[in-house]
Amino acid sequence: MAIEDSHVRRAAHLARLAISDDQASGFVDDLSRILEMVDQLQGIDTEGVMPLSHPLDATQRLRADEVTETNQRDNFQRCAPAVENGLYLVPRVVE
Amino acid sequence: MQWETVIGLEVHVQLATRSKIFSGASTAFGAEPNTQACAVDLGLPGVLPVLNEQAVAMAVQFGLAVHADIAEVSVFDRKNYFYPDLPKGYQTSQMYHPIVGPGDVEITLEDGSTKRIRIHHAHLEEDAGKSLHEDFHGMTGIDLNRAGTPLLEIVSEPDMRSAKEAAAYLKAIHSIVTYLGISDGNMAEGSMRCDVNVSVRPKGQEAFGTRAEIKNVNSFRFVERAIAFEVERQIELIEDGGSVIQETRLFDPERDETRSMRTKEEANDYRYFPCPDLLPVVLDQAYLDHLRSQLPELPADKRERFQNELGLSAYDANVISASRDMAEFFEVVHSVCGDAKQAANWVQGELSGALNRESLSIANSPISARQLGELISRVLDDTISGKAAKDVFQALWNGQGESADEVIEAKGLKQVTDTGAIEAMIDQVIAESPAQVAQYRDSEPEKRGKMIGYFVGQVMKASRGTANPQQVNGLLKEKLDALL
After folding, report:
1. How far out from the chain centre does Cα B172 lie?
2. How many CB atoms lie within 10 A of CB B178?
3. Which of B86, B183, B470, B476 is least surrounded, with the fewest CB atoms within 10 Å of its CB?
4. Whose CA is closest to B258, among B285, B291, B224?
5. Which residues of A touch B (CB under 8 A)?
6. How far apart are CA B302 and CA B464, in angstroms?
């Protein structure tokens, strides 16, 4: 698949990245080379090979269902740009 | 043209853990905003999620209850999207290897018939926070207390064919999760939420029509209403030459309609990938066997037992087994009084009526199952009449006495079954009613049966309701007929 400018802009939009026109064309080249490598991998026969979702040969540890956190709201909200009545304020979201 | 409705449901169930799925913050409902949102829930840099053992156990219990395959290995993925109530920028979910595989649920319809609905899978994920759109100087307020609350998303196959079936399925899921105790199932508080996929197709056609997804359906009643509206909308659209577009719609209970949600650009491109912060969850057979051994008797099993072993009707068995609290209450009443049919009648009649009037749940019933069982025993052994039993019920309900026997004693409701005493009252009534006796004597024999009612009423009145009505009836007939 050939990467085009529109693909880069769409990916940037989804990731909420602001990129300039110059940067966009640079990304077209970079991403194209990455996809070339992926194409190379696609050529390998992976029949019967389990997909690897994690490189570590380990399994998830579980924690007991206990409340261990205390209320730290004041600390957390100290670095928030705007708060009111204990709520974080963000630019208006319209559904 | 005849149309067929095809419905599939995605039910989100909040699991009743004490702490969140990936952090040690509390999940208690109703706390002050953001007092239960810790660094992990806020997605602050450098934090790592650690999976809650109880959330895993609850998901597995659900899977076992719906006869599902439990995945030996399940994997968490990141579902990426931007919304302020999701501070990490992704929801941790299970896209490719969910913990619960295919299973099925039996639903019971109003006519007592049953149908099997297949479950595609169920997966664990985290809930998002809440956005408050009241005006904060043109801004939106965010409360992240709910962020990270464990959810089990249960996805059905498109096996339902009517709004009633969809509601019955939702009730069956509700019943299972509350029996298991893995969720409080409180729809009003959002513990159980539902997205409905609806499409229509000409009857007989195999291919599915294009479906619309209805979000925000949060009561059993709304599920039926939202589907009814949506089915009508789609049929009208197609019959007018249009076509249904695949979209997300929002149900508005106030206007009783569904509305298109503005389709956000590329909203569905979630770019799922395995979450590098969480390792695969591996469950072994011993663990599954252990959880299986802890399962309570489930609603479908109870229903069957009530019907086959206790002889309840399909309807009674279904109503009583639907809620674990009611089923357990009924079982105590039955074990005390020994008569399943009477126990079912009282629990569904007098007791449910009284609970409804005062908006109480059966768990908070002022009258205990033991008290009710003893009361029914006193009717069954003829100590009191059915009418007096209602007075005793009311007295116990109001806390006037510890037991049925105490109330019966205190109120003098004990039925008079002493033949001599009843005969004496009958003789007196007959002596005081010469006109009615004459009427009785002079009327056609087939009409006398009706006329006897007057005398029964008088005797009952004389006994202040304590005479056994069957006995009064029999003795009166004998005495009156002797006068002919």
Report:
1. 8
2. 22
3. B470
4. B224
5. 10, 13-14, 16, 53-54, 56, 58-69, 71-73, 76-77, 82, 84-93, 95
6. 42
DSSP state of B31: P
Are B279 and A86 in contact (CB < 8 Å)? no
| pLDDT beyond 70 at B424 | yes
Cross-chain CB nearest to B138 (options A13, A84, A92):
A92
The SS3 assignment for A5 reads helix
End-to-end CA distance of chain B: 72
- This model of the complex carries an ipTM of 0.85
Can you tell me the mean pLDDT for B211-234?
92
User: Using the beta-carbon criterion (under 8 Å), do A69 and B38 form an inter-chain contact?
Assistant: yes
Structure-token pair, residue B90: 């992704």
Q: CA Rg, chain B, in Å?
A: 30
List strands edge to edge, sheet with B77-80. Answer: B90-93, B77-80, B273-274
Q: What is the pLDDT of residues B152-165, one digit of tens each?
A: 999 999 999 999 99
Residues 78-97 of B with CB under 8 A from A: 80, 82-84, 97
d(CA B155, CA B123): 9
Nearest CA-CA distance, residue A75 and chain B, Å? 10
- B136 contacts A87? CB cut-off 8 A: yes
Q: How confident is the model at residue B427 (pLDDT cuts 50, 70, 90)?
A: confident
Q: Are strands B73-74 and B114-126 parallel, antiparallel or unpaired?
A: unpaired
Is the pTM of the predicted complex or chain greater than 0.80?
yes
Hey, is the C-beta of B56 within 8 angstroms of any chain A C-beta? Answer: yes
Nearest to B58 by CA among B184, B186, B193, B196: B184
